[in-house]
What does this fold into?
Amino acid sequence: MKVIKIYKFKDSVPDTSIDSDISSEALLIGQNPIENTISGYRTLTVTGRGALGYKLTAQSLDGMDGERYVDSNLPIRPIVVTYQLTTSNAAEMIEMQDKLAAILAAKEFEFSFNDQKDWHYIGTVTATSEVPAGKLSGVGSFTITASDPKKYSAEKVITSSDGKFSFPAGNYLITEMAFTPAASTSSLKITNNSGQRLAVSGTINSGDTIHILPRTQVITLNGVNKLEWLAFDSDFENFKATGSGSTIPTGKLVIKYKEMR
It folds into this structure.
């Protein structure tokens, strides 16, 4: 069976956007569906994108029914993609499977879906089920495990130069803060209205920029590692992107953040 790719045209210019006949659940890597890379690949079903139940930590108590609640958190999210491969000969089938393996080889890669392109997960392929050997058309699957079960929006930016900043209502994750002081300083303190703070001690000259990446625990000054400047009592990893906040001293502050669900 010969596979023919048909292009749609608008004003004599090929339309290379996602084809309407591609599944609404199609997996996108780099905003590109696998269907556009491997001719003969088709997404059939995707499971694991729905609501997750909390994993409870509880304590048994003698003489009492049930257990005492201690804590709860969301578990990892396994997303299973079932697909079909169709080709005209065995050599092409092997080549298609090799291409698919290469596409899915990265660790902790961003991926999204055709019906929600503006939101992405981060995960690693942890299981595969290949198309049966000797078939020219068959069904396989792979599991992407997102150790962080939440999905994230595209990056948003807040810029401030008056020593104050605020986030819109929502649930956010800070990916990076970059601060350039208006005048040379020996310290920087960033606080939010939840009482949390990030504090560093070290010389930051006017025109220098210090970058703080809470999620990856990185602090650099003009590209040089300065993690040792971080005050031991700083709320580094869990600094909340909520409400309003301030910087001491004043300067240009750029906060990059993502909405999460």
